[in-house]
Amino acid sequence: MIDKTGTDPLFQPLKLGNTELANRVLMSPLTRSRASQHGDVPNAMNLEYYRQRASAGLIISEATQVSPQGKGYAFTPGIHSEAQIAGWKAITDAVHEAGGRIHMQLWHVGRISHPDLQPNGETPVAPSAIRPEGAMTFISADSGMVEITEPRALDADEMPDIVEQFRIGAINAKKAGFDGVEVHAANGYLLDQFIKSGSNQRTDDFGGSLANRLRLPLMVTEAVIDVWGKDNVGVRISPTGSFNAMYDEDPLATFGEFAKQLNALGVAYIEVVEDSFQGNHAEGRPESVIDAVKNNFEGVYIANGNYLAEEARDRISKGRCDLVTFGRPFIANPDLPERFRDDAPLNEWDSGSFYGGDERGYTDYPFLEKTEA
Ligand code: PHB
Predict the structure, then answer these.
(1) For atom 10 of ligand 1, which residue has the closest CA?
(2) Quick check: is 2 in a domain?
(3) Among 41, 153, 201, 310, who pairs with 36 as Cys (CB 3.0-4.6 Å)?
């Protein structure tokens, strides 16, 4: 086979912090809700799924709760117990053995939860007691989708504990053998709830002004950097996302400033959810917001959201992004980089098996047939 990778923008290597990436076809964080029911522990089926996808330039793990309070859906994995660390260690070993790289996404869901998922049936926490209208979760295999109820506003004196939850998650991710971590500050979960004006109506040091809304996400990022070093830390944002009833009155100003502060902290990358099948206030990609992030940030810019190979090549070539994370294409194509390289046809994804279930729609998507050389 002719080597077509020579000039293909998707196959130019890149150093992301301390991690050498062999290609720019990255796997985005994807909630699949298939951890073991008891203890939220990653299992052998999860290992097989990640091992199959080790040819990604980098895998970013599914969102992983840093604490019992940070959990918002049935069957999502955690990184706060010894059993979870051991489960993840087996996965990172398998990915490394297969030549891959993997970061862990550190997650606290905030208000996107349910008392049935919380320790002692407690009310989920948020910056403000605002119910995300229309947002849903599922609390067990047979609950179906249930509506999110009104959360409890965190007290200011609880913020150090939130930071501590992320710090412990970061320490545990290191024990579990990851190459780095991504702080989840997107998609309507706790840190995004603090950042965006629609969900943060606090009047103390953690709300009101933009500087105050960014305070907790920056404290968390600093704590994670203390554990990992700035070169191994990224942050995910979704400036114009509407999923989970999110809204910000000025995403350009908000995320331009957040990018500037993250640049000062020196994080290796920002991953930007530019568009999403789960909802976006922008029409297509929000180019002016993307400019605001890029103009304020000297690190690596990772683009995400409804990408396929051609658009990814085009935008990398034009300097609109450095790397691209692919979600649904990676669900359905474990060998996605090879398919992009060879212009091979893609398997179609089955949205009915995205969340929860067994091997079907998870580890049974076919690889390309290997032909003898
Ligand atoms: C989801 O469960 O739908 C989900 C989880 C994490 C995300 C986005 C979506 O960041």
Answers:
(1) 187
(2) no
(3) 41
